[in-house]
Amino acid sequence: MSVVTRFAPSPTGFLHIGGARTALFNYLYAKHHGGRFLLRVEDTDRKRSTDEAIQAILHGLSWLDLKWDEETYQSENADRHREVANQLVADGKAYKCFCTPEELAQMRENAKSSGGGTRIYDGRWRDRDPAEAPEGIAPVIRIKMPLEGETTIADLVQGDVTQANGNLDDLIILRSDGTPTYMLAVVVDDHDMGVTHAIRGDDHLNNAFRQLQIFKACGWDVPEFAHIPLIHGADGAKLSKRHGALGVEAYEEMGILPEAMCNYLLRLGWSHGDEETISRAQAVEWFNLESVGRSPARLDMDKLLNLNAQYMKSADPARLAGGVLADAAAAGITVSPDAEKRLVAGMPGLASRAKNTLELFELSKLYLTDAPIEMNEKARDSLKDDDARKTLAELAELLKKATSWGEDELDGIARAYAESRELKLGKVAQPLRAALTGTNVSPSIFEVMAVLGREETLARLEIAAN
Question: Does 424 participate in catalysis according to the annotation?
Answer without folding.
Answer: no
